[in-house]
Amino acid sequence: MTTVIAPGSRGAYVKLAKLDIVDYYLGVLVVWALLAPALRLDVGVLGAMGVFLVGEVLVIVAMVALDDLTGYRDGSDTANYAPDAPARKLDRKPLVAGTLTEPQVLRFALITAVAGAAVWLGALAVAPHRPVWTVALVAVTYFFALQYSWGLKLSYRGCQEFFLAALGWALVLAPYGLATGRVDGLVVVQALIFGLGPLLFGVYSNTNDVEGDRRVGRPTVAALTSPAGNRRFVRAVSACELLLVLALPLVGGPWWFPLALLPTILLRAKQLRVGFGEGDILRARRIGIDAHRVTVVALVVVNLVVR
Fold first, then answer.
1. What domain range is 70 assigned to?
2. What are the transmembrane regions (predicted)?
């Protein structure tokens, strides 16, 4: 039975916030597992990471709300979530579904953006370490998150795919820097792997939304290239993830680290087959979400064993 969401209700705001897509938020688990055992239960470290996570949620919620507002105004969301696309859940786009108005969405985005800034400043204040590079990374992440589809509109200037990955990289490196004051090769490579996870389901969304994005001039790789070119790009990103997995033993991980991530490798192969072999792009996107979450579990378990 389909649940009816009342206009202006709490449920409509929950749908706007996309709180069920937790994939960026999982970075804090990877960071926690990367810490030395003595730091994993340190009150100061846990407190700072918890505050950072709250701020992260607020910032990303503001980002996706502004993305929905821009997508509604330029017509891309209406095209991509039209009634002839039954695989898409219309209530995930409250503006298109008519459960929220533009002023309500803009006000919600501004409130969560301001709250996110305040909470991240609190995280910096209570963090055990505040190296300059980490403070700068937090500031840059905040600024560009809000410019994703608003202001500078980075995703409308050919930066979307890079941003999806870079946001994941920052959300591992920044809290790790606040907890320890440093990074090493193993942390950097795992951050890179983590960031490719959201990208490797985002590119399948872009493949599905190619016509709507072309109509409004949103220059994703899928919109700018031919189907063959887009397929090569997705394969190349998948190959980059594989190379990073294979590089983990070279930067301090155990020799068997790639074996622990074998489920990720197999899921990526399945994702490519389903998406570009069978042509079921939205199912491939779902496989990408599962692959990312499996990757996080594998990274956490291995780090707890070897760190």
1. 11-306
2. 21-39, 45-66, 105-126, 132-150, 162-179, 185-205, 242-267
